[in-house]
Design goal:
- This protein is mainly α and about 180 residues long.
- Strand 1 (about 35-45) and strand 2 (about 45-50) form a beta hairpin.
- It has one domain (about 5-185).
- The protein contains 5 helices and 3 strands.
- The protein is elongated, with a radius of gyration of 24 Å.
- Helix 1 runs antiparallel to helix 2.
- Keywords: Membrane, Transmembrane, Transmembrane helix.
Length: about 180
């Protein structure tokens, strides 16, 4: 017989590490794809947003939130596929991995965006400069762990087995109904 706590801890560590690595990769992709906001320099170190460019702030935040949702959903589903490790340890690993992963995704994305749009000379009035996109608010970091928790909850609620299917030979529902029918007859 296998040692369940060791399998569960190893699987939990894999979930956390995999989620953090995937989040860093998605953050770097966001940093490449997020649009810059263009400003017209009107005075040294002072600029005004060009018409139509202010929506790019929302575009960058929306892209980051959607990317976090996708990573959170995929991480929860991937963790659920490890049948023998389902339970409180797996939920904690999914939650911890997505919390840390959201922060890593923000750091990686902002770092790549800063490399993509280095600080231009903003001292010459009349020039147009592109500024690196940002995440706007730290509340956008909540989407990834929230999505992972909701997906895990839905998967657990839809599971027909009391033990979440972690036993070696789960009884099929059809077999259970047949046995139940023969016992009551």
């Amino acid at each position: 017989m296998t040692n369940f706590p060791r399998i569960r801890l190893r699987s939990a560590a894999g979930v956390v590490c995999g989620t953090v690595v995937a989040s860093a990769l998605v953050g770097a992709i966001w940093g490449v794809l997020a649009p810059a906001e263009h400003l017209l320099v009107v005075a040294p170190d002072r600029g005004v947003t060009l018409t139509g460019e202010s929506v790019h702030r929302f575009d960058a935040i929306g892209m980051f939130a959607c990317a976090g949702l996708v990573v959170g959903i995929l991480a929860a589903v991937a963790a659920w596929t490890a049948r023998r490790s389902r339970g409180p340890v797996a939920v904690a690993a999914v939650l911890a991995g997505n919390i840390v992963g959201a922060g890593v995704m923000a750091l990686a994305g902002l770092g790549v965006a800063a490399l993509r749009f280095p600080g231009d000379d903003v001292s010459t009035p009349g020039t147009i400069v592109a500024t690196a996109p940002g995440i706007g608010t730290l509340l956008v970091l909540v989407f990834q762990p929230l999505a992972a928790c909701v997906v895990t909850l839905v998967l657990a609620a839809l599971n027909p087995f009391d033990d979440l299917g972690i036993s070696d030979s789960p009884v099929e529902l059809d077999e259970w109904d047949e046995r139940d029918a023969t016992l009551t007859s």
